[in-house]
Each structure stands twice: as structure tokens, then as C-alpha cells.
Amino acid sequence: MDRRPKFKDPELAKALLKKIGMLANDLPEVRIMEVCGTHTMEIGRLGLRQRLPDNIRLLSGPGCPVCVTPGEVIDSAVAYARMPDHVLATFGDMIRVPGSRRSLEQVKANGASIEIVASPLQLIRMAEERPDTTLVFAAVGFETTIPAVARTIEIAAEKKLYNLKMLVAHRLLPPALSALCADEDTQISGFLLPGHVSAIIGEAVYRTIDALTVPSAITGFEALDILGGILSVLEMLTNQTAQVINMYPRVVRADGNPHARDLIHRFFTPVDAAWRGIGIIPQSGLALRDEFKAFDAPVLVTGASDLPKGCACGKVLKGTLTPPDCGLFGRACTPQTPIGPCMVSSEGSCAAYYRYERTEG
Ligand code: SF4
């Protein structure tokens, strides 16, 4: 019996899959990368990989924010959590990610001060209620998360809450797309572009990325959205065109969310930044602007090894290795005993493969 989730509109899904199959017949191997952790999980959950023709390969890129956060940022978060009169605040998915030696979860068990928050705006009240405590927020995430962090700094500045600090490790998607396209190892034929990030940065910005020369579809998160995005990429490959097509217009506008983009710009400036397992990508990170440096919690720990020994997350994040091809996958490395960040995060490729696509071997 087929236990895969049923599509909401099975007839439309069938028609899309039929069209995909017809186009695939006339194409060589096609490597389509999604750069969004939510896409990664949905593709796994819906069993889409197995429903596509053999020559259509879906690859997961660096779309999981926790996975690309460098080990030295995790190590610095650990160091802040262990300082007297400090509290390290973080989103829950950071807590188990390994640094070079320990995770936040491990040091919390030994008494370090760590609190999980659902939104950085919660820190405002915490900072007001605890004026003698320094609250450090591990500010990770892509363009979807950054506006809320910027708004938190704006309120903290208005209220003069200088006991609130940001360990800034945000990352920007467009420079990562450029880096992936420039990397000869990746051999990417097309992209499914992330719906959430695109809702902030807009559709038009992609057309300013010179290196983005492969067919790309801004894609939503329903099964039919994802199939529509794949079909759109295949149509462009068939027609030998390479554009950015917005397949998610119900959410993504040409100019995105100007208010959110303005918030990001007012508080942050782009800087070169490291992506875990990948390396430095020019202008792909953010730093607080000079006038807001009073809210900065700098990286304290540098020089540690970026990934645990034997972990191939760097290759997984670039789509040059699928998780089951890592020698540790499903053996030493499982969601219960994660070794690398891609197995820890709920949006990580290795976790998605383990949960939805593991074959007993
Ligand atoms: Fe790293 Fe584990 Fe994934 Fe291997 S299976 S790449 S060790 S997270």
C-alpha cells in the first residue's frame, strides 16, 4: 500500500507529474536545488523525490539557517551563556547544534544560563525586568528573521535597554545563490527559490544577480506549488531560457516587503561572512551599523574547527553529496545522536532524509 501523504488536489498533481514526465523524457540529468529548509522537509514528507522521473534530481542547498551558522558562533554563544550575570537567549532549534566542543544544551545541563524564545521581541520585557543581567540573543537566520531582530533593536534603542545585545550571525540568500552558481562542483540546472525569503526581498532583486544564470522559480510550500516550480524550471530548460519566474504571486510581490527591507537596511550593513562547511561568501552576512554597536555582542571564540570530524555537512549543503552517502548517516549520526548540524536541525537535509527517505540497510 502506498503510505505517502495524499495530495490535496490529486487530479491536478497527477496532471503536473504527467507534464513533468513528458518534459523529462527530452532532457538529460536535471539538478534542481531548493534553498529553503521548509521546502526540504516538504519534499521529504510528500515523497516528491520518488514521484519524479529518475533524471530529475532534487538537491537540498544551504537553506537551513541553523546548519550554516559557523561553529565559532555556537562556541561564542556557549561562552556568553557561561559568563556571570549573562543570559543567552536563542531560538529552540539552536540548542542542540554542536559547536567545536559542546552544544548549548550540554552547557545548560551544567548550569549555564540559556533561555529559549519564540521571538526576539520577547527580549524587550526580559531586559526591562532584569536590568542587572546582560541578555545576549543568538541572532541567526535569513531575511525572514532579520526584520524582527531589527525591530527589537529599534525598541531597545528607544528604551535605552543597553543590557540587550545581539550576537549577529544573520545570512543573506542572494550572495549564496551567486556562490553556488560560481562553484563548478555543484552543477545546478535550476533553483526552487524560497517563498518566505522572497516575500521579504521580492521578486525583482533576483534579476539583479548577474551570476544567477539558471532557470529559477519562486516557489510556495504546498505540494502543488513545489510541483509547479519544478515544472516551470523544466519548461525553461526545454525552451533554453533562464529567467526568474514567480510561481508564488499570492505571497511574493515584485518589491517584496519594503518596510521589512528598510528595517534591515537601517540597522545592518552587509559584510563578508562564513557559512558552516562552505566558507566565506562575500557580502553574505550582516553587521550592526556603527550607531547601534552598543547592542553588539561580538564573536568571542575563533579558530576552532568548523565541523565535527567525519561530518560532510559542507558537501550536503552544496548539493554535491546526498545525506545517505555520508559514511556516518544512520549509523553514528542519527537525530538521537546527531554529529553534524544538518542532522540536528528540524530543517536540516540529513534530518529530512533520515525521517522520510531512509531505507533500511
Ligand atoms: Fe554530518 Fe551527520 Fe549529515 Fe553526515 S549524516 S553529513 S555526519 S550531519
Summarize the structure.
The protein is 37% helix and 17% strand. With 361 residues, it is an alpha/beta fold.
Q: Give me the number of helical elements.
A: 15
Rg of Cα set: 21 Å
Shape: globular
Mean pLDDT equals 94
Tell me the total number of β-strands. 11
Strand proportion, as a percent range, falls in 15-25%
Largest sheet strand order:
2-1-7-8-9
Report the biggest beta sheet as strand number plus sense, adding barrel if it closes: 5 strands, parallel
* SSE pattern, N- to C-terminal: HEHHEHHEHEHEHEHEHEHEHEEHHH
Bound molecules: iron/sulfur cluster
Low-confidence stretches: none
Percent of residues in helices comes to 25-40%
Helical/strand content category: alpha/beta
Distance separating the two termini = 21 Å
List its salient traits.
single chain; 361 residues; alpha/beta; 15 helices; 17% strand; globular; binds iron/sulfur cluster
Structural write-up:
The chain is of the alpha/beta class and 361 residues long. The protein has 15 helices and 11 strands. The protein has helices at 10-25, 37-45, 48-51, 65-68, 71-81, 104-109, 122-129, 146-159, 173-182, 195-201, 223-239, 258-267, 313-317, 341-344, 349-356; strands at 30-34, 56-60, 86-90, 114-116, 134-141, 164-170, 190-194, 216-219, 244-246, 268-275, 279-288. Helix 10 (195-201) links the parallel strand 7 and strand 8 (216-219). Helix 1 (10-25) runs parallel beside helix 11 and helix 2 (37-45) runs parallel beside helix 15 (349-356). It starts with 9 loop residues before the first helix and ends in a 5-residue tail after the last helix. Residues 311-313, 316, 323, 326, 328-329, 333, 339-340, 342-343, 350 line the site of iron/sulfur cluster (SF4). Iron/sulfur cluster binds next to helix 13 and helix 14.
